[in-house]
Task: inverse folding
């Protein structure tokens, strides 16, 4: 660890930078042994700074300084202070120029921050603080500069040279090298800098903007992947068109480049005009990519493009404001994905992800508001809270304001702050001013951690023909926040009667009559709402569309849940009712398991699934979701203490009984949805495949292996990866050991030259419920296709086993815990970001029984005692142990 007690950075301590950089000129000489970076910075005193004549401190890490000049005068070591973290020198208070020359070694940079090599390609990742590994700089988002970049490299090895902005000049040198100069006309912070050099193929297209400008679109990949770019290009064009139509945002340069990189810590990065993508988020073709993979490519391409305005043209003042750009952009990409496919399915998938992962984060030792108050290592706050909960906060604002007012607010925000680094408060103020809606109390969503809880009760008075809803809100304690102020929560609701949604006449409301749906503003600890002229006892439909990221409890009977499943017009509420019914049934079975009684599925759940499978006209993708039991991970989030083995046993038994009792209907569903049509990642085809494969997954649970032949046929003859992978998963989780072993070998032989497919091969094996899965995972660490320096492979094998295979990870002998601790210790010396992100399963120790708690804490302590622990891992481990 660089510091025995790493410093904590606090939002309250923010100060404007004492100096600004008007122009940054970079010159890279890329070499195989070392790279030389020459930097010329045109600086001046920041007029907004109240500090006087203070030294200039430029941060830098892992840099070898070879020369330094101030206004053309070369400085000696006596003229400046230099250590492992910064370069400091006295400077004039007016404008001045600082020039540095440093040597770096990208080929040794396994952290994948700054400039590094992925296979034979040079590339960069500078968010959040990677630029300081390239050169000495004011590496903070509120220092925005114009950039001119010259890249020099061997022409034979690196024929493609890219950076931000426009390519203004190129040339060839006598020594066999060539150079390319790039000028970015828009000021940007250093975290948006990008550089790529490699031997790359490209696909090219064009887009004509709403003002008539033609933009050249290019995707660069390794030559072997040139046939996997069509979907990403189509997604980019669709995103550009949608952003113009929905937000009025036009692209601002004449070129937009995307580069696919094998070694990447994140999904993708929105660097101005040069987006760098993890290969998993840009490459797609039917034979190697699942439907979910196609949808991910579409969503991530759109997300990074949308950042051009919500993140680049308007960026965040400091890293505490990260959700300003990420939450807003996740909301925008979710809107886009909904427009491209099924809005309801997209909403259900997003909420399922939020409830399983973000609610868990809110309840754990790393809980933080979407705008954190402090951090030790900013990389630890690229979280589902900042991204997904941040998006839900923006969604609530849009819900409260309405579509037109929200558009006026976004227009005001972009126009007012174009070219600036701003705060979450600036975003909320623009929304208030454009709409006239008071969002003062709503701001608690930005400053308070935890998942609010709504306890709702309903009473029907037949004599008064009224229905009264009582809503109580609370929020559990989170680290550093024992007391919580009430949130402003939009609760979308309806009352369902025998003929559908009832008219809503809310007593005391200025606009009391609603045709069937109303948004209740929950702003107090306890509130009552009385609906008049109700002629029958209704069933409340609550939190329609998941109008707020809260946990809502209502004492529904199972018959009421069945009524919602069969009658509600809101797709989310239908799915949520199915999940609540599934939770109740599984809890019964878990209790029976613990008491060693027979586990029996409530026949009402099976009847509900039967009706859904028979109901004509339903979205097939929604049916697939509706007949899916709550996941083991979600059940674990609802349990204290968590008994993963009882949960697994109950869910496995429930799935088997469902398959047995609905076998005939499941066979009909499977056969009816088989097709010989050529693969298309269309909404209709994706829905059809999802229902077909859900049916096959159930059928493979039938005793006697009656579905094995059909599953093997789909596995061997499937023409798309969606069908092949689903059948491979079903085989691996079956009892057919001979077929399992053969399928593993056949899959690898078929796809060994496709790294992204082999990553899925790792994951399927790592998430198998077999008793010896841990031993198989340990053996796979030595497989030639595994590389611990590659984040995708680490996530596919180690991350999948520890994060997605609860019964394997939580072995009673603690071997799963020891395995993860061992891997984190190794990874921390290679890539601290990835090591810290893998820690999640161990941080949840307090949710389990005393025996598991003891074993998990022992491993956390062992990690903490490791020598040279990174700040990334230290922060997560220390906060986890303090919980």
Result:
């Amino acid at each position: 660890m660089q510091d025995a007690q790493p410093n904590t950075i606090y939002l309250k301590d923010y100060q404007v930078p004492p100096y600004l950089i008007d122009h940054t000129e970079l010159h890279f000489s890329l070499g195989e042994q070392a790279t030389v970076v020459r930097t010329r910075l045109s600086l001046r005193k920041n007029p907004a700074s109240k500090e006087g004549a203070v030294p200039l401190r430029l941060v830098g890490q892992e840099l070898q300084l070879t020369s330094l000049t101030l206004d053309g005068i070369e400085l000696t070591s006596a003229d400046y202070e230099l250590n492992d973290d910064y370069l400091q020198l006295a400077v004039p208070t007016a404008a001045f120029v600082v020039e540095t020359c440093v040597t770096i070694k990208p080929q040794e940079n396994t952290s994948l921050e700054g400039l590094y090599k992925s296979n034979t390609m040079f590339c960069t990742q500078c968010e959040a603080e990677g630029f300081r590994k390239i050169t000495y700089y004011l590496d903070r988002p509120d220092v925005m500069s114009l950039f001119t970049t010259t890249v020099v490299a061997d022409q034979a090895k690196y024929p493609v040279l890219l950076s931000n902005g426009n390519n203004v000049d190129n040339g060839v040198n006598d020594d066999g090298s060539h150079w390319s100069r790039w000028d970015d006309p828009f000021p940007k912070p250093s975290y948006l800098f990008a550089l790529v050099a490699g031997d790359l193929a490209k696909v090219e297209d064009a887009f004509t903007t709403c003002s008539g400008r033609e933009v050249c679109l290019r995707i660069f990949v390794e030559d072997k992947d040139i046939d996997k770019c069509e979907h990403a290009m189509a997604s980019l064009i669709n995103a550009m068109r949608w952003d113009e139509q929905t937000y009025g945002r036009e692209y601002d340069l004449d070129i937009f480049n995307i580069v696919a990189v094998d070694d990447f810590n994140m999904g993708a990065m929105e660097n101005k005009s040069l987006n760098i993508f993890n290969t998993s988020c840009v490459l797609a073709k039917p034979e190697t990519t699942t439907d979910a993979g196609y949808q991910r490519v579409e969503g991530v391409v759109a997300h990074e493009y949308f950042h051009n305005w919500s993140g680049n043209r308007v960026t965040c003042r400091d890293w505490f404001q990260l959700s300003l750009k990420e939450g807003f952009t996740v909301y925008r990409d979710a809107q886009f994905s909904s427009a491209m496919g099924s809005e309801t399915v997209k909403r259900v998938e997003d909420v399922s992800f939020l409830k399983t992962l973000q609610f868990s984060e809110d309840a754990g030792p790393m809980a933080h508001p979407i705008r954190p108050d402090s951090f030790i290592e900013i990389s630890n706050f690229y979280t589902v809270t900042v991204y997904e909960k941040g998006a839900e906060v923006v969604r609530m604002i849009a819900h409260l304001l309405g579509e037109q007012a929200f558009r006026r607010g976004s227009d005001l925000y972009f126009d007012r702050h174009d070219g600036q680094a701003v705060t979450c408060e600036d975003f909320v103020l623009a929304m208030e001013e454009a709409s006239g809606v008071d969002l003062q109390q709503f701001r608690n969503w930005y400053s308070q951690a935890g998942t609010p809880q709504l306890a709702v009760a309903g009473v029907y008075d037949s004599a008064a023909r009224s229905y009264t809803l009582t809503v109580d809100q609370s929020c559990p304690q989170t680290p550093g926040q024992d007391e919580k102020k009430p949130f402003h929560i939009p609760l979308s609701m309806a009352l369902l009667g025998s003929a559908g949604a009832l008219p809503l006449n809310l007593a005391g409301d200025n606009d009391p009559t609603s045709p069937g749906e109303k948004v209740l503003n929950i702003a107090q600890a306890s509130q009552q709402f009385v609906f008049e002229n109700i002629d029958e006892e209704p069933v409340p439909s609550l939190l329609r569309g998941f109008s707020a990221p809260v946990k809502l409890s209502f004492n529904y009977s199972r018959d009421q849940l069945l009524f919602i499943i069969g009658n509600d017009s809101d797709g989310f509420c239908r799915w949520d009712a199915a999940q609540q019914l599934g939770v109740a049934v599984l809890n019964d079975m878990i209790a029976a398991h613990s008491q060693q009684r027979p586990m029996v599925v409530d026949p009402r759940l099976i009847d509900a699934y039967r009706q859904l499978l028979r109901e004509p006209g339903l979205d097939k993708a929604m049916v697939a979701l509706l007949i899916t039991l709550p996941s083991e991970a979600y059940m674990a989030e609802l349990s204290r203490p968590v008994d993963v083995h009882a949960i697994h046993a109950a869910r496995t038994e429930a799935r088997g009984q469902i398959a047995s009792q609905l076998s005939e209907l499941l066979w009909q569903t499977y056969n009816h949805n088989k097709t010989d049509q050529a693969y298309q990642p269309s909404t209709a085809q994706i829905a059809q495949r999802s229902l077909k494969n859900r049916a096959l997954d159930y059928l493979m649970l039938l005793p006697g292996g009656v579905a094995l032949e059909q599953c093997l046929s789909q596995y061997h003859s499937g023409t798309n990866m969606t069908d092949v992978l689903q059948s491979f998963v079903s085989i691996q989780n079956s009892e057919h050991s001979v077929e399992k072993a053969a399928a593993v070998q056949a899959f690898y032989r078929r796809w060994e030259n496709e790294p992204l497919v082999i990553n899925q091969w790792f994951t399927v094996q790592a998430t198998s419920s077999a008793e010896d899965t841990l031993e198989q995972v340990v053996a796979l660490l030595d497989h030639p296709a595994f590389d611990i320096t590659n984040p995708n492979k680490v996530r596919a094998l180690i991350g999948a086993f520890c994060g997605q295979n609860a019964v394997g990870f939580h072995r009673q002998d603690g071997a799963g815990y020891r395995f993860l601790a061992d891997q984190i210790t190794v990874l921390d010396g290679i890539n601290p970001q990835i090591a810290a992100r893998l820690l999640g399963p161990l941080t949840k120790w307090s949710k389990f029984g005393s025996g598991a708690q003891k074993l998990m804490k022992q491993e956390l302590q062992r990690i903490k005692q490791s020598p040279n622990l990174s700040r990334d891992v230290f922060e997560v481990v220390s906060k986890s142990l303090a919980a």
